[in-house]
Every structure is written in structure tokens, then in C-alpha cells.
Automatic annotation (TrEMBL):
PROSITE patterns: HIG1 (PS51503). Residues 1-63 form the HIG1 domain. This is FlaG/FlaF family flagellin (Archaellin). InterPro entries: Hypoxia_induced_domain. The lineage of its organism: Bacteria, Pseudomonadati, Pseudomonadota, Alphaproteobacteria, Hyphomicrobiales. Pfam families: HIG_1_N. The chain crosses the membrane at residues 6-25, 45-62. The keyword Membrane applies.
Length: 63
């Protein structure tokens, strides 16, 4: 069970990196501020989900 949560957490962390890079590219190209804001909001949500799965993995590892 712990392995499953670890894998899911890593997938979400990778998604965080992808969204962060897309936001930075948008900002460097002088793109829409609205797009940059939406990407950063998505990043925060993905970070929260990754954190939840990491905490679940730690919880089940201790059992």
C-alpha cells in the first residue's frame, strides 16, 4: 500500500514541475497574466495533493 502512495505522490510531484515550468515559460514569453495565474493555482493544488499522498504513505509505512 505504501508503494502505491509513493508512486502516486511522485506522479503528482512531476505534474507540479510540469505546471511550474509551463508557468515560467509563459511568464518569460510575456504571456497572459491570467494564464500564469491559473497555472500557479494549479501548481498549489497539485502540491497539496502530492503532500496528502506523501502523508498517507508515511502513515501506512508506520503501521
Amino acid at each position: 500500500m505504501t508503494t502505491v502512495f509513493n508512486i502516486i505522490a511522485v506522479i503528482f510531484m512531476f505534474a507540479v514541475v510540469v505546471v511550474l515550468v509551463r508557468g515560467l515559460i509563459n511568464m518569460m514569453r510575456g504571456g497572459s497574466g491570467n494564464t500564469s495565474n491559473k497555472l500557479m493555482q494549479a501548481r498549489v493544488i497539485l502540491q497539496f495533493v502530492a503532500l496528502v499522498f506523501l502523508l498517507l504513505a508515511v502513515y501506512f509505512a508506520g503501521r
